[in-house]
Amino acid sequence: ERGCEKGRRKDRMDSHHRTTIHSVVETKNGEMFIVSSIASRPDTQIITIDPSTGVLIYQGIKGIDLFPSEQEASQFLLNSGKQIKTKTRALALLGYVKYESEAYLVIATKIKRCPLVYGGHSISTIEESQWMKIKLSYPYPTNKDTVKNTNLMKDFAIDNLHFFCETFDITRPYPSTHDVSLYNQEFCWNDWLASSFEKIGLRSWCVVLLQGLACSRTLLIADTKVDLCLMIKKSRTNPGTRYRARGINDKGGPGNECECELLFWTGTDSNIQFKSYVWRRGTVPLWWKSQLKSSVGEPDILMRENPTEGTEKYFKHLVDSYGPHTILIINMLRSEVKEKEYVLGQQYNGSIKTVKQHINIDLKILNLDWHCSMKQFGLDQTVETLWTQAKSYIEQMGITAGNISVTPTNSLTESVKKQLNLSPNGQLAFITLSDRQKGICRFNCADSLDRTNVVTFFISMQVAVEICRQVKFGLKQSESEIASALPWSYLSLSLDSITKILNQPMLETLAELFVDAGDVISKLYTNSVAMHSSLMCNYSPNIASRPLNALLAIERRFNNIYHDKDRQAQYEILLGLKKKKYFPMLCTEKVKLLSRYPSWVIESVPCLLPLPPEYLLASDTTFTWLCPSEDQKVDLYIYLPEPCYVTEFSLTVMNGNSEETSPHMIDVFMGNYYDTSHVVFQELRLPRCSNGTKLFYTIPSNVDTLFDSHLYDFQGTDPNLSSLTRVVHLIFHRHSTTSNPENMTIGKIEFYGVSPEPEVSPQESKIFARQQISLQKVKRLVATLETLKENSHLDTIFTIDSLQLGQGKDKSEPDILLNKFTIHDNYEPMKSNLKRSADDIETEPQEINVENKIDEYRSSVSKQKIDFLGTLELECLRLSLNISPQQRDALLVQLGHSIDKFNPCLYVYHRDEKEEATKRKSETRLTLSCNNPKCSNTISFFRQTQCLYCYKKFCSNCMAPPIRIIEYQWLKPQTVCKICHSTLARQEEFLEKIKIMSEQQKFAQRDTKETQKLLSQFQRTFCPSTQSFQSEDGDSLADFPRAGILLSVPTQLNSSPVESILFPLDSPIDTYWAAPIHSSAVEIVIVLSFPSLVEKLLLFTDRLGYTNLDMLDPIQILAGDRYPARFSGVVGTWNLKESSSVLEGSPSESSPYLIEPHTHIQYILPEPVFCRYIHLKIKLAGASSPQIPHAGGSAPLTRKSSASSSGYRSFIHLGRIRVLGRSSPAIPVPLVSPSEMKTYESSMRTGTLVQPVPAKQITQQIRANKIIELVVETTHVAGFWIVVRQEEAIGVASQVKLLLVSHNKAKVGHFVIPKVKPQTRLCYYFQHKVHGNRFTFEIVSNYSNGAHETCLPRLNLFC
After folding, report:
1. Using an 8 Å Cβ cutoff, are 1315 and 696 in contact?
2. Who's near 387: CB < 8 A, 6+ residues apart?
3. What does the angle CA 1161 – CA 1167 – CA 1170 come to, to the nearest 5 degrees?
4. Residue pLDDT, tens place only, 713-742
5. Long-range Cβ contacts of 1155-1158 (<8 Å, 24+ apart)
6. By Cβ atoms counted within 10 A, which residue in 246, 820, 1019, 1352 is the most buried?
7. pLDDT (tens digit, 9 = 90+) per residue, 300-344?
8. What is the C-alpha to C-alpha distance for residues 909 and 710, in angstroms, rounded to an integer?
9. Nearest to 856 by CA among 901, 899, 887, 896
10. What is the Rg, in whole angstroms, of the alpha carbon atoms belonging to the chain?
11. CA 491, 496, 502, 506: dihedral to nearest 10 degrees?
12. Mean pLDDT of the region 21-30
């Protein structure tokens, strides 16, 4: 586009006379919101900063976070009960980044605008910026270098060194034909800072931050208004400081590389004439660096063995950027042999020749030893030599010139204006180029600093003269003299003549601009102002006096030695380079709060106050949840806003009148559906602690990972095919020891984890979607052609046209794959044989008597001895009966058993050998007979042998060969008795069987897991925030992944998941859902994205359509706000056949279809229903009569037009369903009556935590840094308290996670210690009081998974 001689541009803006403004709102409870009204849009967005994890949240839903104006957005926050603490106004968002427990929002609070040519476009220089610190409550692990590097990042100089333009692309030479969003990444310095906004589809809300200078001045020359603008844009390809970013790098980027542009414009409001001249500057593009050997003197220049490597890449980049034109290199390195720059200059000249040999490029080099020439000939002659040598090349390159015709749009209607891309002030501009610069000059000295500043100024002086000649004013000459002058003829004049000819205000402005530019470039590269600027200062009296060059040289050297290391780190941190080096804990940044609104509490939860159950999940809760005193346990079912991987949950402890009112234990179940879930925690003991303590519990992928035994997969999970979670079930148990039960109090509950994120940009995802659809069409095409080959006798087949999706596809876009095929539609209306591919059906599954197997397993559970061997035997039995881990867990819970007792993995953990030796000595008893009941041998004291498993002593005849003890996790075989050897051998045998059978069962479940992968893939492909959720008929209320399916639904083996019926119409997966063949009726419960007023349902039929074989009975529609509905009733009955008959294009009488494929039918509810879920009861027409015969063999199945035809099968199938209506904005603020408030206050008179009576401690011994033994006076011990400690440099990663408590050799219990703030005191009660005096606490694991040592806690026992 840039190669065109003429081009037209229509700017993209349609919000006239509006400037960008952002309001950063902080509430009193720590929530943060960004209320953004940007210039490129007429509306306002609310971006939420999650106070726990720092994740940015934006969904793009009207009334939720998208509003017509800033006033309405602010009012929404107030109506939602947000109490505003502070409000910070920002003129631009620069980025957002979070490190561990802190996040920073980077904003510009003061800017200086300068106009850009026309239409209200302006360039803004940042004068004041701010790093807004946000403390996060989530316990991220920390690192000792994080604080230092975070401070370095915040100290990076932004003010007066960076600029941006919101409405015009200035990352390319003027006039750019690109949209602002399609910026040149070489010059964007906040790409990484803005990545958090890009992930939520709001990259344009962050400005494109450029480094350097952009300054314009308005002059009045001969009664004509003239604007002069200088832009210096620093490249980011080789960022850094003077001695650390010299020469070229592996990206082909030279250090201190800049693109510079001098822009001139003049004219009226409707007709503007502009000129532009572009050049480059940077260090020598070779592999070289400087080495300082002392604090004084010139540094040595060191070069690679092959210093020209990468030079060719750099010049090819210039050709790609500016076209295949001349590149003139003006090289100002010292050329005397005695100078250290001499070798560098020779290598540079040699590299130019090499580059010209390898690529077709017109590359010229002009060598001018500036310092030597100035010393010998003075300024005037040196400058004149420069002009003379460069004259022919500059003449050939020319200047970009053009005209802008601005058209007012007052006469246009608003609908037309919306379709046009207008400038910020509402004008329509057309840009016509009359000339284009053909080539570019590239300037360099060693550092591209002082010499380069001066030389580019004198070249630009000639550019200004040529511009004045072209516009025919601005020169102190007569009109005839100007008109007779040839292009670039002034290059032949002397410096003195040029200064006299050029208009004085323009010359002064030019000098001021270049002095400022030199200072900015020098400040960025050396942290000091430029040297040798006096040569330019002489042309303007307005420039302040400059520091002495000698003082600046000393300042630079000081900065090079003492500050450059930190400044180099600042550059790399700002650009997101070497993140693992500077912020090694950044790997946890994807964790986010999953349970925020619109999470849904499925069932009603008893409460003494009229609060919605979602209040337990709200971020700004005022009240504590009060359960009735008669409830011994409380069930809480939570439906999360999207399928996700839950990694952690937190519970805020809120005590009532005593600490006994908070829950004592909690059970946690998770799954993808309400009726199918697996146990995550069972009887997890919660500590007693002070009011407001926040407890964080890590969700293990299975119990094995919690205990680090790695024995086998007890939960039957496959880490490569892990299931997404949508439903969480919590059961809170009150304290059983409470003699006078009070109201159980439950604090705020939060779930954390990760959700599948888009792996590509929204634009790339659309391309990927089209490719996926086309690929699936080709697969179906191949299947169809194969079917045609096998059944060539059939007169009619489904052609590719009838297989296309048809909905949600842009007809103007060619099909990427299918355009290679030409297929004709062979469908004849009179024919009735319709062929389905083999993928459309499944064979009839064999009947499995699950109940008998469950009964057999239940009987064995009641009889089996529960120890390590017993649990292994039960697991073998379970696997042989093909009972899934979820079925086993449900049965154990039903029988009232603790699942942990039946988990063999919990019996296996590493025993300390020295600790075991001590235990064996304490168990030693003096005996003279063998402990084998079948042996009568007597043994002397010196010939006794102790078994290392049972600790008993035996004669030598009763000892067995050494064998591995699995429970101890010791690699070396141990000496045991024959009795124990038999037990250990059986353990190994059962364990080997379990591993083999569990892998077989896992493989059999792989198809179900693949369904989960499909859902995850869909979420990663499409960013929800970029999709449109509104239509003319109302909001789309049930689009996956925000909406979902509540109950599991029987599904064919090869079918898409039932969630596919909720995929948006433009989804990349062109599939349909099908129920099993033997299922004549199904029930589908659709959970809406928000509480909504439902008005209408739409069904988009799949590629099969509906015939009389698989036509559905009228669908019954139920709705409710809690499941199951308290007052269940049918809110509508949807007759598909009647609905389809009123549509255009309904099937003709000769068509075999009752409803055609790829059509849509609608149903309007008799009355709109406010609900959270829609319940559909679907049944095949005539399903009450047997019409689904079994087909013999594996021959392909077809369906016929006659429902009475035998030998063929029908099944329920659906395409896409859309639910339309109006969504509710947020949870209503609860209204509590005075009497209810009085009851609440009487139940929440929280006092201080009751301190239990400590047991009198005698000794404490720490062994192997993981075992703590406490000896107290013999008493009845009720429990222990623990003070959690963390290493300051590591943080929560060093905290204890799992404690195993034992008394003598007996296991008292294991206790999961939650993540809490350091020095938090937690109090745990044993299940029963233990009489004794010696207790052992073994630290099984910490929160670093063994990567760091555990910081030992403080422990004590109490009575």
Report:
1. yes
2. 458, 459, 462, 491, 492
3. 100
4. 777 654 444 478 999 999 999 886 555 567
5. 1155/1101, 1155/1105, 1155/1106, 1155/1111, 1156/1101, 1156/1105, 1157/802, 1157/806, 1157/1101, 1157/1102, 1157/1103, 1157/1104, 1157/1105, 1158/804, 1158/805, 1158/806, 1158/807, 1158/1100, 1158/1101, 1158/1102, 1158/1103, 1158/1105
6. 246
7. 899 998 999 999 999 999 999 999 999 999 999 999 999 999 999
8. 9
9. 887
10. 39
11. 110
12. 92
User: From the CB of residue 385, how many other CB atoms can be counted at a distance below 10 Å?
Assistant: 13
Evaluate whether 769 touches 1063 at the Cβ level (below 8 Å).
Answer: no
Across the strands, what pairs with 1036?
1220
- Of 253, 258, 192, 189, the C-alpha closest to 230 is 258
Burial 903-924, CB ≥16 within 10 A → b, else e? bbbbbbbeeeeebbeebeeeee
For 332-362, the DSSP string reads: ----STTSTHHHHHHHHHHHHHHHHHHS---
Helix (H) / strand (E) containing 1031: strand 1030-1031
Integer Cα distance of 51 and 30 in angstroms: 7
> Which residues, in sequence order, are CB contacts of 145 under 8 Å at separation 6+?
582, 584
For 405-424, the pLDDT digits (tens) are: 888 776 666 666 655 667 77
Residue 639 to residue 527: CA distance in whole angstroms: 55
Q: d(Cα 240, Cα 242) in Å, to the nearest integer?
A: 7
Which contiguous run of DSSP H or E holds residue 459? Answer: helix 450-471
Structure tokens at 1326: 């044993």
Return the exposure string of 301-326: e unless at least 16 CB atoms fall within 10 Å of the residue's CB, then b: bebeeebbebbbbbbebbbebbeebb
Residue keyed to tokens 């402890």: 653
Residue 304 phi, psi dihedral angles, 5° rounding = -70, 170
**Quick check: pTM over 0.90?**
no
Whole-angstrom Cα distance, residue 1239 to residue 1231? 14
Dist CA 160 CA 211 (whole Å): 9
SS3 1357: strand
Q: How far is CA 469 from CA 248, 262, 472, 480, 582, in A?
A: 39, 16, 5, 11, 54
List phi, psi (to 5°) of 874. -65, -35
User: For 436-472, how does the pLDDT look when each residue is reduced to its tens digit (9 = 90+)?
Assistant: 999 999 999 999 999 999 999 999 999 999 999 999 9
Distance CA 1070, CA 1077 (A): 21
8-state DSSP, 1348: S
Residue recorded with tokens 């705020």: 748
Least reliable range by pLDDT among 586-595, 621-630, 1088-1097, 1283-1292: 586-595
Residue type (1 letter), 636:
L
Distance between start and end Cα atoms, the chain: 83
> What SS3 class is residue 1003?
helix
User: By the 8 A CB rule, do 111 and 163 touch?
Assistant: no
User: How many degrees, rounded to 5, is the angle at CA 637 between CA 635 and CA 638?
Assistant: 145
Name the residue type at position 1183: A
Residue by residue, DSSP assigns 880-945 as HTT--HHHHHHHHHHTT--GGGG-GGGG--PPPHHHHHHHHHHH----SB-S-TT---B--GGG-E
**Residue whose structure tokens are 């908070």:** 662
Q: In angstroms, rounded to a whole number, what is the distance separating the alpha carbons of residues 220 and 984?
A: 99
Burial of 1306 (0-12, 13-18, 19+ CB in 10 A): exposed
Tokens describing residue 1003: 């493989």
Whole-number Cα distances in Å, 947 to 935, 955, 975: 15, 10, 6
781 three-state secondary structure: helix
Give the DSSP letter string of 1242-1306: HHT---PPPPPPBP-EEEEEEETTTEEEEEEEEEEEEEEEEE---BTTTBGGGSEEEEEEEETTE
Q: Compare 1346 and 1255 and report the one with higher pLDDT.
A: 1255
CA dihedral 516, 520, 525, 529 (to 10 degrees): 50
Position of tokens 């005037």?
Answer: 380
